[in-house]
Prior knowledge:
- The chain is an alpha/beta fold.
- The protein is built from 15 helices and twelve strands.
- It has one domain (35-402): TIM Barrel (Alpha-Beta Barrel).
- The chain has an eight-stranded parallel barrel with strand order 3-4-5-8-9-10-11-12, surrounded by four helices. Strands 1-2 form a two-stranded antiparallel sheet.
Amino acid sequence: MGASKRSGHKVSRSPRAFIVASASRLPRVTIAALVLAIATLAATYPAAALAPHGTGRGTGISATSQQRVPTAGVSDATAPQLSLAKQVGQLIIATYQGQTPPVSLLSAIRLGHVGAVILMGDNTTGGIRVTKLATAQMQTAARKGGNAGLLIMTDQEGGTVKRLSGPPDYAAIDMANPTTAYAQGRATGQLLRSAGVNVDLAPVADVIRVHGFIQQERRSFGASPAVVSNAACKFAAGLAGVGVAYTLKHFPGLGDAVATTDLQAVSVTESASNLYEDDAAYRRCGHGPLALVMISSASYPHMTGSLPAVLDPKIYSQVLPRDGVTALPISDDFESGAIRAVSTQGPAKTAINAGLDMVMYADYESVALSAYTTLLADAHDGALSRNRVQAASYRVLQLKSHLGLGIGSS
């Protein structure tokens, strides 16, 4: 996510993106054989792929509309069971307009048709107290439906991109010192917890390579992979240290992008070796029980061809394992210009089949609920792999369990 599309937060409004390759950097070896071997093993054996700290991206066991998947955090013998309808619901990140969640969203949450909610600028204008009331109302709806708690997310990066008043007190570029980054991450986590938010869609792990929207909005920690890795991972550690999940973004990198994918199709023409060099933060902290990774909606001709990264199976089966990233993969906004420009029918279905675990709809509640209905129908008729739905929902529930949001948690 970039700056909010709602309620006055700054948004980059650049012309159609043209990406400048950085010819000055030297290519590096991009294949880590051991990591790939482990990923291959995990994909072959679903139990390993679904383990809370596994290194692979498995597809799970075969499922039918009558079969159910155990909830994370408890043994298979005693676990509550999820229907296919609720499995699909775990993959949906929805939103709403205004300070109070509408009855329609609360009903969808109670039915298990929504697994997460993203709070945008207009949702948080009432401050901590009003936001806390809204998040508590949504969590209550989830519990009343016998569901695991919701992941409640927001973009609290710092600078021009934050939804709540308070920490971080600086833009990312001003938190390059690891000590500062850790302290700000910890303070940010405490602020978010006070509002009922349990996932920060931060830190940005992009390395500045051109004078693009990431640099203009001061959202990166710097122009060096080492500096970005040190600061981003310290910020992430601060969040995790107070029980808030963190999200590294935008994999495999938007530091070479002139324009934002929020508005239009973006192509990053950087070499695969240079992208790998810039992914140091993902290799350092793209794993652990409270880690998520946001997959970019840009295309990478030297890695994914013309297809946005979020839709490309190679990202999940090759590139993430190469970097040792086991974080829960989520999309950027699927109502963005970059996704609307894709000719692929059913991009959400395509992304989940490819290996994505959660799809975000950050503009209109109705779009998220419509996407849920379509994905459930796709799962029933076989267009959406039930193995993938099962594996993805299980991973979402594992994250929720680590956040104390499992079914039966208080």
